[in-house]
Amino acid sequence: MVPVMSTVTAPSRTGRRADLIAVGLAMLVVAAAIAVGLHYNRPGSGVVIYAFAPPLFGLWLPHVGPGSVAAVVLALLVVTKGPLLAARLSWRPLLALGYVTALAWTFSLAMIDGWTRGFTGRLATEHEYLHEVPGITDIPKMLGEFSSRILDFQPDSWTTHVSGHPPGATLVFVWLDRLGLQGGAWASTVVVLVGCLAVVAVPVTLSALGRQDAARTVLPFAVLTPGAIWIGVSADGLFAGVTATGIALLALATRRRILALPGGLLLGFGLFLSYGLVLLGVIVLAVVVLTREWRILLTATVGVAVVVASFALAGFWWLDGYHLVVERYYQGIATLRPYSYWVWADIAAVLIALGPAVIAGTRRAGAEFLAEPKRSFGEPVTLIVLAAVLTIAFADLSGLSKAEVERIWLPFEVWLLPAVALLPSKGRRWWLAASAATALMVNHLVLTSW
């Protein structure tokens, strides 16, 4: 078990000023991405970015809906009561309350767009997984021929999201169908239920690594994260919940080593939900370094290997699928979306999904690392945040996610939430209010596509 190490959060005018400057610079990046994106969207610009509310994927459409009042009320309750409850409640009841509140917040945000447009219809379009489910009557056959149907311009090519992911993502919705849970309402419900597990998995990880103080601070921010807009509803929210739970189990394995095996199984299955989730290995490595228990990594690797071997025996080899997906990616709009814009506009989209508090906290994590790099490798909050930054940097520079990263990188974004623990206790409620306001503003101004 790692020792408890307190982070430097003493309020200072210099620190607060630097936080505000960091948030201001982030807002400038977002404003620049909006301005340049709108310029590119003008007729005759000669550039196609395929994003009509840049840098987010959606449409500019100011609107209110059935969830508007509920979302505002929940935000006010969490901002005013959340930090106090997080400090005083017993740990397990607090986690249960946090999870239920996250469900309510995520659902209320989705309902701003309405029941069909914001919830039941999100996973039922012609580009989504449910479109293919009725045609999959033989799962072993589907797995055996999956790679052969990835490339476009074939009579039996998979639809966009099915072809762009390993078969595990599609299998989730096929299994739901087999259980009798057909249709968009059930699919979206399961996505939100699993996606909100990330809200408690991140604090659980911090607590297991010896920083329950930080875990309690993070929980209200995790509940009100602007990223909840895309947890409800995109399949990437489900991916975030599955993989965050896997990482939490690795951290808990310091107390019960056997938990590393189910953690490895979940992370192994994560590899078959989205190819990009292989980058979570950076965060996994950070957690293992913090535990100082390398046997945990060995046990988890066994779990990952079991999943990889199972899919291979069923006829799907991950590397073959990955290479074909890269080819499919450049058969579509990726060839038109300019890397020169999206390599920094993607970061703007992430900044929106994170909110001001995480931005300020991340600045503090970077400052602490630069001041005391050796100490940072033993401090859970700082090391996990820096690992998440590195993961997003790798994903961004690869150019394999040009646009739509506010949802695609959700499994990485949730690991930046610990950064808020570095903010001074005085003023945290204002940062929490800013996070909620960001989510409410974005969800009411933009009709997101996922």
UniProtKB/TrEMBL annotation:
Keywords of the record: Membrane, Transmembrane, Transmembrane helix
Q: Which residues cross the membrane?
A: 20-40, 60-79, 91-112, 185-209, 221-253, 265-290, 297-319, 339-360, 381-401, 430-447
Q: Which domain of life is it from?
A: Bacteria
| First and last residue of the signal peptide | none
The protein depicted here goes by the name Membrane protein
Q: Per the UniProt entry, what species is this protein from, by scientific name?
A: Amycolatopsis lurida NRRL 2430
